[in-house]
Amino acid sequence: MKPKSSQYGYDVFLSHSAKDREFVSRLASDLDSSGVSVWVDQRNIRPGDSFAEAIEKAMKNSRFLLIVMSPAYFQSAWAQQEWHYALASEVEEGGIRLIPLLYQECDIPAMLRTKQWVDFRDPTQYQVVLDRLVKDLLSRPESQESTARRDAKAPIPGERVEELDPKNLSELKEVLRDAVQAFRARPEAVPVPATVSQAPRSR
Predict the structure, then answer these.
(1) Across 26-71, where does the E strand assignment appear?
(2) Rounded alpha-carbon distances, angstroms, from residue 2 to 21, 34, 40, 144
(3) Hey, is 101 helix, strand or coil?
(4) Where are the domains of the chain?
(5) Is the pLDDT of residue 124 over 80?
């Protein structure tokens, strides 16, 4: 499927834990069927590919990074490097790159609790939530220069519901920059960096 955006190879990169593969496979298939082009490791990484290089290239080549949050997700070193990388790009470039999807109840890191997430916890509401997500993704302009609300009654997935103050923003950039450099250098051996100590909490 061709991506919606000519600037990127894919509309979304799905970051997830292998333990959540059943849900992720269904989500990827449904997004594709709805017109959203998806990159997901289990079907896009070919035998012989460098896993680290393929992941970094795909993240750069995807318009949005959708992270599937669950207890298993935040126990995965790979997954945490992926969202740190995406958040670093977002902080440096502005706009929205990272969109959290809440699949299962979990302890969400402070860096992510300031962002509006999409709630997939109730299986009976899956199709309703999916339709809203697809509509939002396909209606966004290609420009990421502004994250202004289109409708005050409809929060935008991925937008910040609480802004970081300048001091915390500076600390966040430093932490994320270190994470990206470590990921590029040797991702299989990179420990998850400490979070910003004073990062604000969500509502």
Answers:
(1) 38-39, 62-69
(2) 24, 12, 15, 20
(3) strand
(4) 10-189
(5) yes
Q: Which residues of 81-104 are buried (b: 16+ CB within 10 A; e: fewer)?
A: bbbbbbbbbbbeeeebbbbbbbbe
Strand order in the sheet with 10-15: 38-39, 10-15, 62-69, 98-102, 118-119
Coil, helix or strand at residue 140: coil
- Three-state SS for 34? coil
Looking at residue 150, the DSSP 8-state letter turns out to be S
pTM of the predicted model over 0.85: no
Total Cβ atoms within 10 A of residue 108: 18
- The domain covering 10-189 belongs, at the CATH homologous superfamily level, to Toll/interleukin-1 receptor homology (TIR) domain (3.40.50.10140)
By the 10 Å C-beta count (0-12 exposed, 13-18 middle, 19+ buried), 128 is classed as: exposed
CA-CA distance, 161 to 157, in Å (whole number)?
10
3-state SS assignment for residue 90: helix
**Predicted confidence (pLDDT) per residue in 101-113, tens digit:** 999 999 999 888 8
Q: What are the distances in angstroms from CA 169 to CA 4, 107, 114, 164? A: 31, 22, 12, 6
